[in-house]
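hi!! sorry for the late reply, been swamped w classes. u asked for the two structures so here they r. pasted raw, havent cleaned anything up. first the sequence of the first protein and right below it the C-alpha cells
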Amino acid sequence: MRLGIAVFSEVEGKSVPQSPNLSRAEISAVIEMALSDHVSFADIEAQFGLSDAETKVLMRNNLKPSSYRTWRKRVRTFGDRREHYK
C-alpha cells in the first residue's frame, strides 16, 4: 500500500479508492478489528472512515493471500448465519 498517493483497486468489478491517510498503526488496528468476530464493518467505518469495500482492499493488500481468503470465507459464513455480522 502506498501512503500519500490515491490508489485504486478493483473490488467486485468496481474501482474502489484505498485510504492513503492511514498510518501503519492505524492499518494494524483496522486489521485487528476486521479479524475480530466481534467488530462489524460499520464499527470500522465509524472509527476509521473506511467502507466495507475499502476494508476488504486494505485486508487484501496487507494479509498473505491464504490468510485473506480464509478471512473472507469466515466473514461470508458468519454473515450468512447472522443478519448483522460484518
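now the second protein. again sequence first, C-alpha cells right under
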Amino acid sequence: MVYGVTVPGHDGRAGMATLVLQPDAKFDGPQIYHHVAELLPPYAWPRFLRLQEQLEMTETFKQKRFRLVEEGFDPGRVSDPLFVLDITARTYIPLTPDVWTKIAAGELRL
C-alpha cells in the first residue's frame, strides 16, 4: 500500500509504502531499490518503506490507511521496521532515530 506522509521542513508529502513480506523472505534494500528504479520514474519512488506482518483491513476488506498516514515515518511512533531511500547508495537503509533527526533537520536529502 502506498500513501503520502508529511516531512518536517518540506512542502507536500513524500511517498511511503507499507510492505508485507512472504513468511520466509528477508528484506533486501538493494533488490527493492533496483525493482523500484526499474519500474517507476524517480518522482514516483517511495522515499520510505514500512514492513508489517499484515495490513489492517476494514470490515469491507479495504486497507486502513489513516493510522499509517498519521504515524508517518517517525521511529519514535512506529514499532514496525522502517527504511529510507538512499539514492547515492542505491538501496533502502534502516530509518533509525538518528537518521530521522537528520531528515527533520534537513541534513539528509530525500
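hope this helps!! also noticed smth abt the second:
Residues 2-105 form a domain with the GMP Synthetase; Chain A, domain 3 fold (CATH 3.30.300).
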